[in-house]
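Side project, low priority. Logging it here so it doesn't get lost.
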Amino acid sequence: MKTVRTRRWLFVFAILAAVSYLGVRGPGISPASAADAKIRPKKTATGQTLVEQTVVQAAPSPAAPASGWDSERAMSGQDDWEPANAVDPINPNFVYQLTTRYSGPTACKNCKLPAIIFRASSDGGASWGADKFIEASIKAQNDPEIEVAASGHVYAVWLDAFVPGASFSKSMDRGVTWSTPKSFTGKGTKPSYSDKPILAISRDGQHVYIAFNAGDSWVVASHDFGNSFSAPVKTNSDSRQWFHNGGAVSAANGNVVYFGAADFSGTYAGDAGVDVIMSTNGGMTWTTTRVDTSRQMPDCPWAPGCTLGFFGTSIALAIDPNGTLMIAYHVNATAGAPEQMYIRTSTNGVNWSARTQISDPSPSVNNGFPAIAAGPTAGDFRVAWQDDRNGSTTAWNTWYRRTINGGGSFSAAVRLSDLGSGAPYKTSAGYAFPYGDYFEMAVDSNGRNHVVWGEGTSYSGPGGTWYTRGQ
C-alpha cells in the first residue's frame, strides 16, 4: 500500500524470498497475496517475452477542469501506479514525482520491473523533464515516497522487494544523481524483511524517519540528514498486522514525529484500528493512540485481482505551521458496508476532536485512499480521496476539499479527475477503479496544490498515474 491491501501474511520466509523477485503487483504485496497478484510479463532487449502490458493512451478529449485547476494529465503511456509527489518548501518552481512502473524499458539488461521512476519539474509542474530510474535494480520495486528539504535536497524511499526492503536515497542536485541506497532489513537483522515504507522529514532535512511494517510496526530514524540511521524500533506489542499511511515531523522540534497507521487481524476479517504513533524523543520510544475503530471492510469481488483487504481503512496525516495535526481516514459502522471519509484534529497527537464526515453523505458510496497536506498558514489543510458516487463500483473519481479554519468548515468537493477519455478505463462518469491504494498531495509555498493518483481498469490493471495542480 500505500501498498496492496491484499496484505495477508504467511510467515514463511522461503515464499517471501521467492515472491520478492517476481515483480508481482502490489504496493507492499505480502507473500500470501502473491497468488492473487498479476505478474507483469515484459520483453527483454533480445525480444524474448517475459511479460508485457501497457496502457494505450488515446488523445484526451477536451474537458472543463474545475475552476482554478489544470485538467488532469497522464504521467506516461506506461502501466504506472501508486505515485508519490513533493514540492520544494522554499522554491515553488521545483516539483518532484515518483511512480511504480510495470511496463516499458528497464534500467539495465538484468533489471526488473516494476521499477521506481523519477521525474522533476522546474516550472511549478507546467512541464516535466525526462523520466529517470533512481536505481538499476535486479529486484522488483514498489511503494515510493518522496520529500524535499528547505536546502532543496530530495529524499526518497521505496521498497526494493521485501529483502532488503525499504531503501533510502538522497539527491543533492535536484534528482540528477542519487546516493547509494541504504536499507534496514535483511539476513541476520531484526526484522529480516520490510514492507510499505512511509517517509517523514523535518523542514531542514536533518531529522529523517521511515516507518515500515514487517507484520509489526517498525521505525528507523536519522538525525544527520540521512547519512546514518538507528536500528529499527518496534512500536507495537500485539500480534496485529500494521500498515503506515502518513507521517509528519513537528516544525518546532525535529525530535517530535507522528505516523498514521491502521491495524488489522491476520486475515483482515473483523475490526480494524485507526491509530496515531508518536515519538517525542527522536524515535527512541513510541506511544500509540487508538483514534477510531472500523468494522470489517467491504469486499471487492467485482474488480479482477481485488480481494478482502484492499478497501481496509487507511489514515493520512499532516501538521500545520502552528503544530496542529489533522488526520483523514475512512471507517464504517457495519461490517461489509462502504466506508465513509472523516477528519479529526489534535494539538498533541493524543487528544483528538470529534470526527467530521467530509465524504458524500450517501451511505452507499465507497470512499478510500486519503491524501492530506497542510497549507502555508495555520488552519489550512487540503484533503483528497477517491470515491464511486458517480456510479457504484464502476465510476470512480478523485475529489478535493479544503479548510482554512482547522476543520471548522470545508469547501465544496471538487472533482479533479475531469477527463472523460484518454485511456481505456475512462468515461465521462469517471474511471473504472482506483489503481493502487495510495496517492499523494503536496502544497507549495504559494499555496498551489499538486495532486498525483492512480486510475485503472481494475485492481490488476493496466492503469496509469495522473496529475493535476491548482488552488
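Brief comment: Confidence is low (pLDDT under 50) at residues 1-62.
Revisit when time allows.
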